[in-house]
Amino acid sequence: MMKKGMCRFAALAGAVLTVLYSPAGCEGESRSGSGTILMVGSTSMEAFATALAERYMEIDRGVTVNVEFAGSGAGIQAVLDGTADIGNSSRSLRDGEKAGGAVENIVAIDGIAVCVDPSNEVRGLTRRQLADIYMGNVTYWSEVGGQDMPIVVVGREAGSGTRSAFEDILGVRDVCDYANELDSNGAVMAKVASTPGAIGYVSLDVVGDDVIALRLDGAAPTAENIKSGKYALSRPFVMVTEGQIDGQSRLLQSWFDFVLGDEGQKIATSVGLIPVR
After folding, report:
1. Residue 94 and residue 86: Cα distance in Å, rounded?
2. Which of 58, 233, 238, 239 is least enclosed, having the fewest CB within 10 Å?
3. How confident is the model over 220-262, as pLDDT tens digits?
C-alpha cells in the first residue's frame, strides 16, 4: 500500500506537466466524483496552475488534473476545438474568440515587469519612452538618461499572452522592433540578465535578483501599485471555458469553486499574484 506522503507524483516532459494522483491510502473526500481535467495554455500561469492542480487533487480524491503549457493562444484554441476543458490565458479574450464561444473567467491579476541588466543606470521610464524603445524610435540608453550604450530589445514570441498584453497596454501591437523573441519568462530573464543594454518584460512573479525591475511613470511594479492603478502594466490570468461556468460539468464547477474560493485565492497570493476575490 502506498504511504500517505507518496500520494502525489509529478512528471514533467518538455512543455507538458502532468500531475497524477492516486487515492489509495490518501486523505480527502471526493466532492465531484472521479474524472480528469485538462488545462492547456499560458506558460506564465505555470506556477499558479501547478499549485492549484496539486492542492485540488489532495482535497478531491479520484480527480486527475493535467496541465500543458503551450501558450495562451494555443490554450484558447484547444477549448474551442474541444480538446481541452480549460484554456489558461495570460491575456483577455479577443472579440473573435468570444464570438466562437469562449468565455473569460478571471482567476487572478498579474503584473508585467520591465527589466534591465544589473549594470544599467536607468531605474525608470515613462510609458512613452518604453513604447518608443520597443518601436525602435529610441535605440540608445543615453536618450532616456542612461549610458551611451545600444538598447537590445527582448520580448516574447508571437502567440504569447504576455506579449499581447504588453503590446496592447502600450499601444504598440505589431509595430515592435525586437532583437530577440523568446518562448518563456525564464528565457527572457536569462537573456536580459546576461546581455548589457538589454530590456525585456516578464511576469512580475518571476522577477529575480539578477535583473532590475524598472519603475513606470514613477511607480514600482508592486501589488499595491497595480491594485491602485498607479502601475499600468498588468493583465488578467484567465481560465477560459466554452460556455459559462454554471453550464459546465459538476467536476468543472467544483474546480472553479475551489479556484475562486478562499484557498485558491490564497494560492494566487502565495505565487505572487493579486487575488480577484
Report:
1. 16
2. 58
3. 999 899 989 999 999 999 999 999 999 999 999 999 999 999 9
Q: What is the DSSP letter of 152?
A: E
Which fold would CATH assign to domain 4-109+236-270?
D-Maltodextrin-Binding Protein; domain 2 (3.40.190)
Instruction: Say which residue the cell 466524483 belongs to.
Output: 33
Measured N-to-C along each axis, helices 46-59 and 262-270 cross at an angle, to the nearest 10 degrees, of 140
3-state secondary structure of 36: strand
pTM value?
A: 0.79
Q: Where does the chain hold its CATH 3.40.190.10 domain(s)?
A: 4-109+236-270, 111-234
Q: What is the CATH number of domain 111-234?
A: 3.40.190.10
Q: How far is CA 264 from CA 47, 124, 202, in A?
A: 13, 34, 23
